């Protein structure tokens, strides 16, 4: 051990340090001393150590940073360490790396949002396996996870399906289940069939109407809030809202031709859907419109209710 007393700096064996220290009567804090590294293994670089060894070597510094963070930054150790790292990078002119780190700190990150990746996969007609191949290639080549893995896309996709958002009708609607967890139901369920009807065999995926409507409104949440802000109606978050819906049924033509080679499919595909035309808030006798669909005839604003292959 090296004695810390001014103008002493003597090196003493650990066992004899107490005896040496008693000779310094002016010494107040007798626990202070400096270890001397006498040969042995050369000190490894900090970044080449195991995580446990890194923790051990930085223990004192960690305590100091923790004390500073609690005193100055409300205990936010992460912010202190990140800022130190940023300053160190910028001091060495590593501005690109510092900018990337700053983006991650602010939650922007260098990666794409799962919903954006889902949109890319759908719009470029990539199958799951093709997307996964692209994801792995980009990750291997760049060393960064720019695209999100498939399971993140599936989670993002669930939020777009009816039955994902819990809701409650006030007052409760007659003959409507209060259960918000909705599976896929038969396409023709609820349609009264008579003997005279033209027999149609269907394969259909149909969602419960109220669940599909809630999902559509949840999807439009940002537009609704922006509309309320524009009309200074922030205080009316609880409504009541009037929602005008246009229902539509769209024949999708002869799908067997479009599929080309593959399994034989029934001839007609039919889609039942609806479009939210406008949303208003009732204020006394007048109603203020907070949302209006600009292109009500566009396929892009159609919310699916039932997708059905009908074999006539």
UniProtKB/TrEMBL annotation:
Cofactor(s) demanded: Mn(2+); Mg(2+)
Major location category of this protein: nucleus
EC number: 2.3.2.27, 3.1.-.-
Residues in NBD domain copies: 39-106
Cofactor binding comment, as recorded: Binds 1 divalent metal cation per subunit. Mg(2+) or Mn(2+).
Recorded catalytic activity of this chain's protein: S-ubiquitinyl-[E2 ubiquitin-conjugating enzyme]-L-cysteine + [acceptor protein]-L-lysine = [E2 ubiquitin-conjugating enzyme]-L-cysteine + N(6)-ubiquitinyl-[acceptor protein]-L-lysine
GO biological process assignments: adaptive immune response; B cell differentiation; chromatin organization; T cell differentiation in thymus; V(D)J recombination
Keyword Hydrolase included in the entry's annotation: yes
Domain of life, per lineage: Eukaryota
One Gene Ontology CC term in the entry: nucleus
Assigned protein family: Belongs to the RAG1 family.
PANTHER family: V(D)J RECOMBINATION-ACTIVATING PROTEIN 1, VDJ RECOMBINATION ACTIVATING PROTEIN 1 RAG1
Record protein name field: V(D)J recombination-activating protein 1
Species annotation: Athene brama (Spotted owlet)
Species classification: Eukaryota, Metazoa, Chordata, Craniata, Vertebrata
């Amino acid at each position: 051990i090296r004695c810390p007393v001014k103008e002493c700096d003597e090196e003493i064996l650990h066992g004899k340090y107490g005896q040496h220290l008693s000779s310094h009567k002016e010494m107040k804090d007798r626990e202070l001393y400096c270890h001397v590294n006498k040969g042995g293994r050369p000190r490894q670089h900090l970044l080449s150590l195991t995580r446990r060894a890194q923790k051990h070597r930085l223990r004192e510094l960690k305590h100091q940073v923790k004390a500073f963070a609690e005193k100055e930054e409300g205990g936010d150790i992460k912010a202190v360490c990140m800022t130190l790292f940023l300053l160190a990078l910028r001091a060495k002119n590593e501005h690109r790396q510092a900018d990337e780190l700053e983006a991650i700190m602010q939650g922007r990150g260098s990666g794409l949002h799962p919903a954006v990746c889902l949109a890319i996969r759908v719009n470029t007609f990539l199958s799951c396996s093709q997307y996964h191949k692209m994801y792995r290639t980009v990750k291997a080549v760049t060393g960064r996870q720019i695209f999100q893995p498939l399971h993140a896309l599936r989670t993002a996709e669930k939020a777009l399906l009816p039955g994902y958002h819990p809701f409650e009708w006030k007052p409760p609607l007659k003959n409507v289940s209060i259960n918000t967890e909705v599976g896929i139901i038969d396409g023709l369920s609820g349609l009264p069939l008579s003997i005279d009807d033209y027999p149609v065999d269907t394969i259909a995926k149909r969602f419960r109407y109220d669940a599909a409507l809630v999902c559509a409104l949840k999807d439009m949440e940002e537009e609704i809030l922006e509309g309320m802000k524009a009309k200074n109606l922030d205080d009316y978050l609880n409504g009541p809202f009037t929602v005008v819906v246009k229902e539509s049924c769209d024949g999708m033509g002869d799908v067997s031709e479009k599929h080309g080679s593959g399994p034989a499919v029934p001839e007609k595909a039919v889609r039942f859907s609806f479009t939210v035309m406008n949303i208003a808030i009732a204020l006394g006798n007048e109603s203020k419109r907070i949302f209006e669909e600009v292109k009500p005839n566009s396929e892009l604003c159609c919310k699916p209710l039932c997708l059905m292959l009908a074999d006539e």
